[in-house]
Structure formats: structure tokens, C-alpha cells
Automatic annotation (TrEMBL):
<dbReference type="InterPro" id="IPR009057">
    <property type="entry name" value="Homeodomain-like_sf"/>
</dbReference>
<keyword id="KW-0238">DNA-binding</keyword>
<dbReference type="Pfam" id="PF02311">
    <property type="entry name" value="AraC_binding"/>
</dbReference>
<dbReference type="InterPro" id="IPR003313">
    <property type="entry name" value="AraC-bd"/>
</dbReference>
<dbReference type="InterPro" id="IPR037923">
    <property type="entry name" value="HTH-like"/>
</dbReference>
<dbReference type="Pfam" id="PF12833">
    <property type="entry name" value="HTH_18"/>
</dbReference>
<dbReference type="GO" id="GO:0043565">
    <property type="term" value="F:sequence-specific DNA binding"/>
</dbReference>
<dbReference type="InterPro" id="IPR018060">
    <property type="entry name" value="HTH_AraC"/>
</dbReference>
<dbReference type="InterPro" id="IPR050204">
    <property type="entry name" value="AraC_XylS_family_regulators"/>
</dbReference>
<keyword id="KW-0805">Transcription regulation</keyword>
<dbReference type="GO" id="GO:0003700">
    <property type="term" value="F:DNA-binding transcription factor activity"/>
</dbReference>
<keyword id="KW-0804">Transcription</keyword>
<protein>
    <submittedName>
        <fullName>AraC family transcriptional regulator</fullName>
    </submittedName>
</protein>
<feature type="domain" description="HTH araC/xylS-type">
    <location>
        <begin position="180"/>
        <end position="277"/>
    </location>
</feature>
Length: 289
């Protein structure tokens, strides 16, 4: 059954489907919702109520009730309400492996070989919105396995016509060699406290040139990008039931409070709350073995 929420308050309801790895989120925000961040999953959702405004692909987008939002992995986006009533939306976080496998089946094996992305951020096709909402509720409540499988197959079929070449991959291919190398180093040594001078030296570039090239290619300066890598890794560990304190140490945050501040700014809830929603394990207890 759906949870009740007090009018005028921000809230986030999250569910995690263990068999597919898909997360479903239904949330409401008044004013500021999220700082700029990215995900490793494909995000597909629908605005339920209010005016949902966000920046993505170097442009501002506004979604109204019934509009579909499509964001590919690695795309930086934020979120805020425009209007006193705030906004409510639903979103599915689809793993790339699930999307590729499911859309390949839906397209009778003709899925493109290039990395897939979405042709447009916003979409007004009613069939797609209906498929997203049906898949969302069958997973979020949840329904019987057969109903969930059928809803996910219908979602894959509805998404397939809207897939094209990945914009994130294309921009990355256009990045300078130094920017690409810096990104590789940050991913490989995410937990290390590397300085900009050292990073630039290892990439064979001047620190100022590297900062400009990196931001042009990936939309964030190196440190902000590193924080996002750490947050993505933290989400994965928390979803497996690891404690916020151990996660903070493992991914490179100074301590649990440091992780908590960044996590809430990016995802709208605390690491402990996210862990509990994914695992049904409250903070302060170990996950079942």
C-alpha cells in the first residue's frame, strides 16, 4: 500500500527489486531537490504533479504532469521545483545490463552495437508514460512475479524506439587525451586523496589546462567528478547492506558525516535511510548473511 505523507514536506519512497537490480523511487520536493550528480543506471520516469525543473545536457528542462524524463548513465543533472506546490515524480533506475538484454529481446535481436543513450531528455508519448508507470507500480508495491515480468517486457518495447547513440560516450570520445587519462585515474584510485598538481603531472598537462579540458568533456571539475564516483560506489555498497561508516571509509570520504552531507545533497535522503529502504536493515545493524 502507498505511504501517507504530510502536505508540504519533502519525502522519498524507494524500493529495490533484488532479481533485476532495478530501483524504483517516488518522491516529492518543494524548492531545491538535488545538487548536480550522475548515476550509473538509465533513469526513466514520469512527472506526476507540479513543475519539475532540472539541468541536463547543458540546457534547462521543465517537465509537467504526464511528461516522461529519460536520462542515460553518466549524464549530470540536478532538480528543483518551480511553484509553491512543489513536484512529485516516479523514477526507475535501470541497470545497463538489464536494458541491453531486455531491449535486444524486444527488438528481436536488432539492438544496436554502439553504447545506447536516449535521443531526447523529455518525451510526451502517452504509450511510453503508461509503460513506465505500469512497470513502476508493479515493482514498487510489488505485484506478482508474472505481472512484473510482463510490465518490464512492455517497458523495454516502449523504450526501444527512443534509444540512439550515447551522448555521454560521444562527448568522452571528443575529450582531450589528458582529460580522458584523468578520468581513468580518478576511477582507478577513487579512494585516494590526490591533488590537482599530481593529477595533471600524471596526465602530462598543466593543471589549469587539465581543469578546463576536464570540465568541458565531463561537465564537472575533477574534484566534483571524484565525489560523484564515490557517491555512486557508496550507493552500490549501501544497497548490499554495508554500514554507512564502513562505506565512507571504503570509497574515500573522510568519515560517515562527510558521506552523509554529500549523499543527501545528491540523492535527497541519508545513507542510512537509503540502506534501510534497499535492505530492510535499520541503521546500526548488520545485514543478513
Amino acid at each position: 500500500m502507498r505511504r501517507r505523507h504530510e502536505p508540504g514536506q519533502d519525502w522519498v519512497d524507494l524500493s529495490h527489486d533484488a532479481s533485476t537490480g532495478i530501483e524504483t523511487i517516488r518522491a516529492h520536493f518543494n524548492g531545491h531537490a538535488y545538487d548536480p550528480h550522475f548515476h550509473d543506471e538509465y533513469l526513466v520516469g514520469v512527472t506526476e504533479q507540479g513543475l519539475q525543473e532540472f539541468s541536463c545536457r547543458r540546457a534547462v528542462h521543465r517537465s509537467t504532469p504526464g511528461r516522461v524524463i529519460l536520462i542515460e548513465p553518466g549524464e549530470i543533472h540536478d532538480g528543483q521545483a518551480r511553484g509553491e506546490e512543489g513536484f512529485t515524480y516516479v523514477m526507475l533506475y535501470l541497470r545497463p545490463s538489464w536494458l541491453i538484454q531486455s531491449c535486444t529481446r524486444a527488438a528481436d535481436g536488432s539492438f544496436p552495437s554502439h553504447p545506447a543513450g536516449f535521443r531526447a531528455i523529455l518525451n510526451d508519448e502517452p504509450r511510453l508514460a503508461t509503460a513506465i508507470l505500469r512497470a513502476f507500480w508493479t515493482l514498487h508495491l510489488p505485484e506478482a512475479r508474472l505481472a512484473r515480468d510482463e510490465a518490464l517486457d512492455a517497458l523495454a518495447a516502449a523504450l526501444n524506439p527512443h534509444l540512439g547513440a550515447s551522448r555521454v560516450v560521444r562527448v568522452g570520445e571528443q575529450a582531450t587525451r589528458a582529460a580522458r587519462r584523468a578520468r581513468e585515474l580518478l576511477r582507478e584510485q577513487m579512494e585516494d586523496d590526490v591533488g590537482l598538481d599530481e593529477l595533471a603531472r600524471r596526465c602530462g598537462a598543466d593543471r589549469f589546462q587539465l581543469s578546463r579540458a576536464f570540465r568541458k568533456a565531463y561537465g564537472l571539475p575533477p574534484h566534483a567528478y571524484l565525489v560523484q564516483l564515490r557517491l555512486t560506489a557508496a550507493r552500490q555498497r549501501l544497497a548490499r547492506g554495508e554500514s554507512p561508516a564502513s562505506v565512507a571509509a571504503a570509497v574515500g570520504f573522510a568519515d560517515q558525516s562527510h558521506l552523509g552531507r554529500w549523499f543527501r545533497r545528491a540523492f535527497g535522503l541519508t545513507p542510512a535511510a537509503y540502506r534501510a529502504m534497499c535492505t530492510n536493515v535499520p541503521d546500526g545493524r548488520s545485514s543478513p548473511r
